[in-house]
């Protein structure tokens, strides 16, 4: 039998929601592999590889594989007329403005900084600061802070790439003020850099020098705080700061302690889109903004708009409007209630709930600190079936059970979860979402 033509095979896949050229690719690859019947699976795999919303039931709030902080909703809604944005237009004068006045000025205000600049991510913020302020000069860093953050971001390598010269002080576990003092008088450094050990903890016989003391050395102190906690007193939350935040450096307090600049990510504890923020002394921010790299590292309007929205929530004191903070601070009792409702909505007791579990901040922040949480569990590993659901649901497997942690799930998705679990337990295919499971929906 002759193999089917590429075109005929592609037409058989027309029910899949993929543009025709991608169906042709799948058909061609299947025929080339001598396995025309695999065309559908290949096209489906291609569709699954595209970006799409997924339900994060892992309990990892800032899941790096899931885009870190969840965003409230897309800033530019698809409904309504297509409109431009005043990205670089001063609406007062009608002249060219700066894309760094909207989100940046709000973030500066929130951090108690004279000025701020937004770039593409935290790594870019560090790179730009070093390139703009320390090229061909020395930068003093403690040996205990020469860290790798993940994804290949290593402080010594970023320093080398920026053209600054690393001067290491102290030892892995202990650095003292005298170590810095000696290095400063010997090398006339452009900056003293302090890097937060975001993703690991050092315990035991350790010592480091706080920003207060470093600030007295002379050169500007740049603190890469990483996590993007704006204010250690968390005025956007109703109660006191959550205990799991203990010891996390915050932008406002680090600047108040004498740092000339802080750098941090937009999508960690700030709860915004992927971005990097540098904030502090206006003259230093200005030098960074004028550096040619700033143009290469600048964010687009979509990011700035999402970041502006996040900053406005903080200024309103409305932490509940920021999905990360809403999810991080919801009471365990409420999660137990939702888990019980989901378990009850699934027939034949196939799902256990509520079960207590532990969520984590993730995203390389707050290592070793758990946030008490609750969810549902079912025996066996059902994560492949749940990932294949529409929308995909990402859970985790613990001691032979599939755990869906509700701390990272929007309550509006509880009904979807219940529907998926009913299908997985009953080995049924996908039913229309949300139908028949409305009792599990939490308001
Ligand atoms: C996360 C982190 C970075 C990198 O930030 P990205 O936004 O991931 O590029 C840099 N420094 C510290 C201390 C961090 O925690």
How does this structure look, described?
- With 443 residues, the protein is an alpha/beta fold.
- Helices cover 34% and strands 17% of the residues.
- It folds into two domains: 136 residues, Aspartate Aminotransferase, domain 1, CATH 3.90.1150; 215 residues, Type I PLP-dependent aspartate aminotransferase-like (Major domain) (Aspartate Aminotransferase, domain 2), CATH 3.40.640.10.
- It is built from 16 helices and 14 strands.
- Strands 3-9-8-7-6-4-5 form a seven-stranded mixed β-sheet, sandwiched between helices.
- The chain is globular and about 80 Å long.
- The structure holds pyridoxal-5'-phosphate.
- Pyridoxal-5'-phosphate binds next to helix 5 and strand 7.
Short structural description:
By secondary structure, the chain is an alpha/beta fold. It is built from 16 helices and 14 strands. β10 and β11 form a beta hairpin.
Fold blueprint:
Layout: H1 6-12, H2 20-32, H3 39-48, E1 55-56, E2 60-62, H4 103-111, E3 115-119, H5 122-134, E4 138-142, H6 155-162, E5 165-169, H7 177-187, E6 191-195, H8 211-214, E7 221-226, H9 251-256, E8 261-265, E9 276-280, H10 282-290, H11 292-297, H12 301-315, H13 323-329, H14 332-345, E10 352-362, E11 365-379, H15 383-387, E12 393-394, E13 396-398, E14 401-405, H16 414-426
Helix pairs in contact: 1-2, 2-3, 4-12, 5-6, 5-10, 14-16
The structure holds pyridoxal-5'-phosphate (PLP).
